[in-house]
Specification:
- The chain has about 425 residues and is an alpha/beta fold.
- Among the domains are: about 1-165, Rossmann fold (3-Layer(aba) Sandwich), CATH 3.40.50.720; about 375-430, no CATH class.
- About 50% of the residues lie in helices and about 15% in strands.
- The chain contains 18 helices and 13 strands.
- It is globular and about 55 Å long.
- The mean pLDDT is about 95.
- Bound molecules: 6-O-phosphono-alpha-D-glucopyranose (G6P).
- The site of 6-O-phosphono-alpha-D-glucopyranose has 10 residues, from α13.
Length: about 425
């Protein structure tokens, strides 16, 4: 089995390497290729050396290689993992700060920031899918690149490649919930519906028993869930009425003013945007990674939001490879599993996974009180995907005004113009027609 990791120089790669080591019996990987772009060469070299030390320490037989030649990496691959960031972290800093100028949320995946990230990322992932059609047409594209739901939908609609979108949020939610309930995660089953970074835990089962109502009748549980969305004034009352667990990304919609204020305060206090903080974290991480004495994943990596990513990615590949029919919460085409969302739209939900892919389990209506928001965001996502491919400014404007975090065409236009200008080198689809 050959696995290609695109964005191999990412600081998250040691998580994956650890995962491959732990799964040596269930995932017989022979070749592991780390691919990156020229600007990422230095990081790729550091990650490659660290990964080699980790594999050697574990006595692994996996043949590890690194390359800047994507074609070479894709040729003959069975699984392709994408974990790239078009424009690198500097572009994220712009996504997070430009909307704030207009008093709108600047966030990596949600609102205008996520919109800009989608415009930059979708064409690149589609070009990878095209290369895969040529070089490894039967391989699976396991996408972790954000915005994961939109990226996966773009691939599924525009290429023949089989793809599943991933996020670490569902696994993080389940682990946190099991801790809160003081139970073994194996005894927990959640019915999880919605979109990537806008999801809802509709029902909770412990040892097969539906305990949803019982849990939401308890004050301490309601308080715990309110904490997931920031614990602001009104959060407890909202959760008690919803009787469902909103993912923490829902807080950007329910408590938008507080989120914007927090970002503005961070900047005022010199902490910068999350991208600035991640840059500092990465600097420390890469210093550590470069040390020849390090031969395991360092604890510091858990300070990044994507912790447990490897668990999500590799257990998914394990289910495909071993045809084991286990349940995973992943991003797939809806095809009627959730009523009220488009059939041809990607959702994040419970799926049975085997050799033939991820098959969503029908769950019917979205939870009461969540559907207007979820449907609006899906409509925004579909317009954004169109704009990312066509490079049409009018479609992009429609996408932005449809996003519940934008409020108004005047702000949408200003933000759109600023984002397109700031990211011009990464948005040729918007400029090639003009020049
Ligand atoms: C989460 C999300 C990821 C996101 C990450 C950001 O856990 O699920 O999709 O990329 O947080 O973390 P960071 O450390 O980069 O802010």
């Amino acid at each position: 089995m050959k696995v290609a990791i695109i964005g191999g120089g990412s600081s998250y790669t040691p998580e994956l390497i650890e995962g491959f080591i732990l799964r040596r019996d269930s995932l017989p990987v022979k070749d592991l290729v780390l691919v990156d772009i020229e600007e990422g060469q230095e990081k790729l070299d550091i990650i490659y050396e660290l990964s080699k030390r980790m594999l050697e320490k574990a006595g692994s037989k996996i043949k590890l290689t690194k390359t800047l030649d994507r074609d070479q990496a894709l040729k003959g691959a069975s699984y392709v993992l994408t974990q790239l960031r078009v424009g690198r972290i500097e572009a994220r800093a712009k996504d997070e700060s430009i909307p704030l100028k207009y008093h709108r949320l600047g966030q990596e995946t949600t609102g205008a920031g996520g919109f800009a990230k989608a415009l930059r990322t979708i064409p690149v992932i589609l070009s990878i899918a095209k290369d895969m059609e040529r070089l490894c047409p039967d391989a699976w594209l396991i996408n972790f690149t954000n915005p994961s739901g939109m990226v996966t939908e773009a691939v599924l609609k525009n290429s023949k490649i089989r793809s599943i979108g991933l996020c670490n949020a569902p696994i993080g939610l389940q682990r946190g919930l099991a801790d809160q309930l003081k139970i073994d995660p194996k005894d927990l089953y959640v019915e999880y519906v919605g979109l990537n970074h806008l999801s809802w835990t509709k029902r909770i089962f412990v040892k097969g028993r539906d305990v949803t109502e019982e849990l939401f009748s308890k004050d301490d549980f309601v308080e715990y869930v309110a904490g997931i969305i920031g614990g602001h004034k009104g959060a407890k009352e909202l959760v008690a009425a919803l009787k469902t667990i909103p993912s923490y990304y829902c807080s950007y919609f329910f408590f938008e003013d507080q989120a914007i204020q927090k970002d503005l305060d961070n900047i005022k206090e010199g902490k910068g945007t999350r991208a600035d903080q991640v840059m500092a974290l990465e600097e420390d991480l890469f210093k550590l990674y470069a040390s020849p004495d390090l031969d395991e994943k360092p604890e510091q990596l858990s300070k990044r939001g994507g912790a447990l990513y490897s668990e999500a990615a590799l257990s998914l590949i394990e289910s495909i490879h071993n045809n084991d029919g286990k349940m995973h919460i992943v991003n797939v085409m809806n095809k009627g599993a959730i009523t009220g969302l488009p059939h041809d739209g990607v959702i994040e939900t419970n799926c049975i996974v085997n050799k033939s892919g991820a098959h969503p389990i029908a769950s019917g209506q979205l939870p009461r009180g969540s559907s207007a928001l979820t449907k609006a965001v899906k409509a925004y996502e579909q317009l954004t995907i169109e704009a990312a491919i066509d490079g049409c400014r009018q479609t992009a404007l429609l996408a932005l005004v449809s996003n519940p975090l934008i409020h108004g065409a005047d702000k949408a236009l200003d933000i759109l113009n600023d984002l397109l200008k700031a990211h011009k080198p990464y948005l040729p689809q918007f400029y090639s027609k003009e020049e």
